[in-house]
Amino acid sequence: MKIAVLPGDGIGPEIVAEAVKVLNALDLDIEMESAPVGGAAYEAAGHPLPPATLKLAQEADAILFGAVGDWKYDTLDRPLRPEQAILGLRKALGLFANFRPAICYKELTHASSLKPELVAGLDILIIRELTGDIYFGQPRGRRVATDGHFPGTEEAFDTMRYSRPEIERIAHVAFQAAQKRGKKVTSVDKANVLETFQLWKDVVTEVGQQYPDVALDHMYVDNAAMQLVKEPKRFDVVVTGNMFGDILSDEASMLTGSIGMLPSASLNDKKQGLYEPSHGSAPDIAGKGIANPLATILSAAMMLRFSLGQEAAAQKIEAAVQKVLADGLRTADIYSEGTTRVSTREMGDAVVAAL
Amino acid sequence: MKIAVLPGDGIGPEIVAEAVKVLNALDLDIEMESAPVGGAAYEAAGHPLPPATLKLAQEADAILFGAVGDWKYDTLDRPLRPEQAILGLRKALGLFANFRPAICYKELTHASSLKPELVAGLDILIIRELTGDIYFGQPRGRRVATDGHFPGTEEAFDTMRYSRPEIERIAHVAFQAAQKRGKKVTSVDKANVLETFQLWKDVVTEVGQQYPDVALDHMYVDNAAMQLVKEPKRFDVVVTGNMFGDILSDEASMLTGSIGMLPSASLNDKKQGLYEPSHGSAPDIAGKGIANPLATILSAAMMLRFSLGQEAAAQKIEAAVQKVLADGLRTADIYSEGTTRVSTREMGDAVVAAL
Ligand SMILES: CC(C)[C@H](C(=O)O)[C@@H](O)C(=O)O
Ligand SMILES: CC(C)[C@H](C(=O)O)[C@@H](O)C(=O)O
Question: Can you tell me which residues bind substrate (chains A, B) (predicted)?
Answer without folding.
Answer: 90, 100, 128, 222
